[in-house]
Each structure stands twice: as structure tokens, then as C-alpha cells.
Task: inverse folding
């Protein structure tokens, strides 16, 4: 009996020491793994920023194939939430998208069962020569007294294995999608038939650094003339490009507004009527600030060389989004058209 007491006291003493030790152990937790994926940044971003896409490569699905899953909010946007409830291996909780940018996605992960805790997941995307480096990091806390378990278990190794599996799943999916959905410089190019268009425009040979001012001077003036003449617009403001000369840093171009065919067009003498014949056309939907469209134009050049195509008319930039009403440049849509043969 005396020996049993000693054993009992020893156990109590060890537990007490561990609990006291836990008071001084760090409760902060950080886990991180990276992988390089040979696919366009935009494609990878969509596989992470969409919770439905993320669930397709999640490393935890195999722990409970019968896990109950529900989604709320608009998928692919900040505020969308993924809810799960499963067996003791996966527990119960939710994950909410809190930030989406071109190179970073952040989520808030709330665990309800088997115990309550909260973590922040951060995915960063860094373009490299061999692809895009994707880093999956997680920051949170190991609440007392559960932080004591860190003395006996390598949590970084345990969680790191899941991160590595997930990243490998993401790599396989993204690279397969990239093969199926051929992109050029990260952009999807569609071949369309452009209907003939009529523009009222101001032409000029404009230095690159004066293009913005050329637009600001002429596009509002064209719109004013169109309204006064009773002519109806048929679309968004455009830039029509006939020559882009990097030696002289200038472009032969026009600031243009598309209009509906009307006999009153001829009464507008200040601006020139330009008819675009249309036909076979390449199209890229570009999102971003205007000065970053060079990559999209380079993609068009790559596509034309591969397909043996040549320009057969104007290069058109259609500025769909009004920056005065949308402050976020990443949401500015510019339709880029190359009329080809």
C-alpha cells in the first residue's frame, strides 16, 4: 500500500510539473511548407481562393470520406465560408476567406471539435523561373494545457506532412489543368468573330508617356460631341492601335468611342469616323492596371507565332471598368482584341 501511495504521489507530481511547465511554454504555433508549381499564377490562385477548389486537393478529405461539407457566401470571394463536420480525425469547424490578392490568400480556420481553437492560414505565391513557389503557412496558438503535448510530439512534423501532401495534390491538379487549358504567358486566349464596329475617334502619333493625357483630353470631348449630336454609344471607351514603336517610344493610335450607326454621325466634324471590319479576332480578358497590359500583348504575339497568324487590322483595348467607380485596379477589366488572318 505504501508503494502504491509513492506511485500515486509520483504521478501527481509529474502531472503537476507538466502543468506548471505548460504555463511557461510558448502557446504560439507556426507551420510552413513550400512547393514549386509549373503553372500560371492566375490558375494556381483560383485553386486556392475558391474554397470549393481547395476542397478538391485538401489533404484531410481522405481521413473521412463521409465528412459533411457545406458552403456559404459567394465562392472565390472574401467572406465565403467552408463548414465541415466529420469523424474524430477531422472534427468540426469552418474556414473563411479573409483576403484575396494576386499573390496572397488568407483564411481564418476555426476548430470547434475535438477542442476549440483558431488559426490563420496564409498562402503566398511567388513567380520563379521554374514556375510559381507556393508557400502554405499557418499561425495560431496551442492553448494551455494542450501546449504541454508539444514536449512529446513533433507538431511541425505531424502538420507539415499534411501540408506537404496538400501542396503535392495542388501541384498535380494545377499542372494537369494547365496542360488541359493551354495558356500563353498566363492568359487564356479565345478566337472569336468580332462584329463590325463604328467609332468616333481622335487619331495621333503619341509618345508613350503622353497616352494617358491623350485619352483624358479626347475621350470626354468625344462623349460630349456624341451626346450633343444625339448619337448613341454602343460600348466602353477604347484605344485603337496601328503601330507601337519601342525605338521612338511612340504609338500611332486613336482615342475612340464606339457608336451605333446613325446618319447624325456625319454632323460631328471635330472627330473622325473609323470603321473596324471585324472578322476573326483574338481576345484576352485582362484584369489589372493599364500599365501592366504588356504581358497580355506578349501573350498575343506568342499565340500568333504558334498559330501562324498575322494582324489584319487594329489592336483594340476596350476599357470596360471605370476607375472612378472601382478603386481596386485588380478588378479593372480591359478587353484586348487582335483582328487577325
Result:
Amino acid at each position: 500500500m505504501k508503494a502504491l501511495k509513492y506511485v500515486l504521489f509520483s504521478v501527481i507530481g509529474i502531472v503537476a510539473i507538466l502543468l506548471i511547465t505548460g504555463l511557461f511554454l510558448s502557446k504560439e504555433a507556426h507551420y510552413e511548407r513550400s512547393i514549386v508549381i509549373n503553372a500560371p499564377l492566375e490558375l494556381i490562385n483560383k485553386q486556392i481562393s475558391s474554397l470549393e477548389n481547395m476542397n478538391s486537393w485538401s489533404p484531410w478529405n481522405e481521413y473521412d470520406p463521409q465528412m459533411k461539407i457545406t458552403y456559404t457566401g459567394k465562392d472565390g470571394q472574401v467572406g465565403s465560408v467552408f463548414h465541415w463536420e466529420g469523424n474524430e480525425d477531422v472534427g468540426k469547424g469552418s474556414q473563411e476567406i479573409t483576403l484575396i490578392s494576386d499573390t496572397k490568400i488568407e483564411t481564418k480556420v476555426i476548430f470547434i471539435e475535438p477542442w476549440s481553437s483558431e488559426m490563420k492560414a496564409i498562402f503566398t505565391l511567388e513567380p520563379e523561373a521554374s514556375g510559381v513557389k507556393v508557400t502554405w503557412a499557418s499561425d495560431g496558438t496551442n492553448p494551455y494545457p494542450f501546449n504541454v503535448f508539444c514536449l512529446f510530439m513533433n507538431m511541425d512534423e505531424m502538420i507539415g506532412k499534411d501540408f506537404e501532401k496538400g501542396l503535392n495534390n495542388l501541384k498535380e491538379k494545377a499542372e494537369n489543368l494547365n496542360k488541359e487549358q493551354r495558356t500563353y504567358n498566363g492568359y487564356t486566349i479565345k478566337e472569336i468573330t468580332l462584329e463590325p464596329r463604328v467609332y468616333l475617334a481622335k487619331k495621333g502619333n503619341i509618345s508613350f508617356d503622353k497616352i494617358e493625357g491623350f485619352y483624358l483630353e479626347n475621350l470626354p470631348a468625344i462623349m460630349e460631341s456624341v451626346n450633343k449630336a444625339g448619337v448613341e454609344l454602343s460600348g466602353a471607351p477604347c484605344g485603337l492601335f496601328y503601330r507601337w514603336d519601342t525605338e521612338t517610344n511612340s504609338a500611332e493610335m486613336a482615342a475612340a468611342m464606339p457608336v451605333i450607326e446613325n446618319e447624325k454621325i456625319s454632323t460631328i466634324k471635330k472627330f473622325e469616323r473609323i470603321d473596324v471590319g471585324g472578322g476573326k479576332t483574338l481576345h484576352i480578358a485582362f484584369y489589372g492596371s493599364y500599365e501592366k497590359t504588356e504581358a497580355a500583348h506578349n501573350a498575343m504575339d506568342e499565340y500568333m507565332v504558334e498559330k501562324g497568324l498575322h494582324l489584319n487590322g487594329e489592336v483594340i483595348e476596350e476599357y470596360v471598368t471605370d476607375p472612378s467607380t472601382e478603386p481596386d485596379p485588380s478588378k479593372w477589366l480591359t478587353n484586348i482584341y487582335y483582328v487577325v488572318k
Notes: The two ends are 98 Å apart (CA to CA). The mean pLDDT is 85. The helical segments are 2-24, 41-49, 51-57, 155-180, 211-229, 294-307. Residues 50 and 76 are 4 Å apart (CA to CA).
